[in-house]
Amino acid sequence: MKTPYSDQVRLLVNLLPIVEKQTCFALKGGTAINLFIRDMPRLSVDIDLAYLPVEGRDQSLEGINTALGNIIEDIQKRIPRAQVKAVKLKGTDKRCKLLVQQGATHVKIEVTPVLRGSVYPSQTCRISENAEKTFGFASMTLLSFEDLFGGKICATLDRQHPRDLYDTYWLLQNEGITQSLKNAFMVYLMGHNRPMAELLAPKFQDISPLYRAEFEGMAYEPVDLERLKDTLPNLVIQIHKALNDADRLFLLDLKKGNADWEKFALPEAQILPAIQWKVLNLERMAPDKRRKAAHKLEKVLFG
Asked: CA–CA separation, 9 vs 24, rounded Å?
């Protein structure tokens, strides 16, 4: 099946061996899920990367900048007629995103500077059978299954984009929220830039325009609009079923500023930059504002 996205995926797969050479990165997001973990139920057209080393911010930005620079050089040598535009992180001279264009086809390569490191060890995977038959061979370092879907669940709750809902639909149909996935999700929830209460009790949006504009023609295994609309409320129910009282108390204690990390299943997660940044921002909140935020989260967690 030739779709409007096929040329983008073909370029993306050609770029993956170049990206793989930069061992500081692991693939995450929809491309990792749909071209590697799943057997291409839908296409994906972006290369989203996690920076694996846990370092200080300045050192990390320098590492990301250098690795993206190496990717630019390799693209210019290996991909005929490719043009690359680097986008720099706001307020810095460091690259965080590459826009690759070959003729009328374009692919984005992006690193999220705050979400550095991973919850579980990364893995090396071969591209799925159907993806290889259609677009060619590639292997790539990926985040773990739990990291991939822990981040994907947060993205679904946050953006409510049909692509994220689609990936989450198949998660709930297949593996569900396991204990290890729940723990990873909690880490991504705690490190997210939005308040936990907003993610755990999202305001449902009308996804119909985005479904037509940015999703139709992307899926080999279709999930209709109504089932995607039902996915978000189902996800919220499954999350709240998965969280036990100890999980809820820990999340609330984090918000209040007295979290005991030894009571969490993954105490080592406290060193991750996104978690440290979130804790720092909570400490900077005015006491009254923080009390109100904690009360709001308590209502979401305990009713």
From this structure: 23
> Does residue 137 share a domain with residue 169?
no
Query: How many structural domains comprise the chain?
Result: 2
* C-alpha to C-alpha distance for 160 and 165, rounded to whole angstroms: 6
pLDDT tens readout for residues 170-207: 999 999 999 999 999 999 999 999 999 999 999 999 99
Distance CA 128, CA 137 (A): 9
CB of 68 closer than 8 Å to CB of 86: yes
Show the tokens assigned to 261.
Answer: 């990390």
Distance CA 88, CA 45 (A): 21
pLDDT of 79-117, one tens digit each? Answer: 999 999 999 999 999 999 999 999 999 999 999 888 899
CB 89 within 8 A of CB 113: yes
Q: Are strands 82-88 and 46-51 parallel, antiparallel or unpaired?
A: unpaired
Is 10 found in the same domain as 126?
yes
Identify whether the C-beta of residue 2 lies closer than 8 Å to the C-beta of residue 218: no
Phi, psi dihedrals of residue 92, rounded to the nearest 5°: -135, 175
d(CA 68, CA 84): 11
Tell whether 124 and 175 lie within a shared domain.
no
Find the domain containing 209 and state its range. Answer: 145-303
Token look-up 């690759």 returns 100
Cβ count near 222 (within 10 Å): 12
- How many H helices and E strands in the chain? 13, 7
